[in-house]
Amino acid sequence: MFVKARLANLQAVDVNAFDVIYICPHRSELGTLIFRRHHTPPRRALFIELPFAAPCGSIDHIRDVLDPQRFQDGWLT
């Protein structure tokens, strides 16, 4: 399962529903891996499309929105 979401729509996303999370530049299908659940095949992937002029600290913002309590240890940033 592959899901693509925009940065502005992350509030309703549950990080536990995905095995890997990528960030993608605006209107791109290529992404950079920022989260991988250990010992799990990457069957459920979330691709987050960044805005055209993504602000600095976007990866930290994504982690804070998806995992505010920092319960997940698979973050690669």
Please summarize the sheet with the most strands.
4 strands, mixed
User: Which strand order does the major sheet show?
Assistant: 1-4-2-3
Order of helices and strands: EEEEH
Radius of gyration: 12 Å
How many alpha or pi helices?
1
Overall structural class, as computed from helix and strand content, comes to alpha/beta
Write a concise keyword list for the protein shown above.
single chain, alpha/beta, 1 helix, 12% helix, 26% strand
What does this 3D model show about the protein?
With 77 residues, this protein is of the alpha/beta class. Helix content is 12%, strand content 26%. The chain is built from one helix and four strands; from the N terminus they run ββββα. The chain has one helix spanning 58-66; strands spanning 2-6, 20-24, 32-36, 45-49. A four-stranded mixed beta sheet has the order 1-4-2-3, with no helix packed on it. Strand 2 and strand 3 form a beta hairpin. The chain is globular and about 35 Å long. It starts with a strand and ends in an 11-residue tail after the last helix.
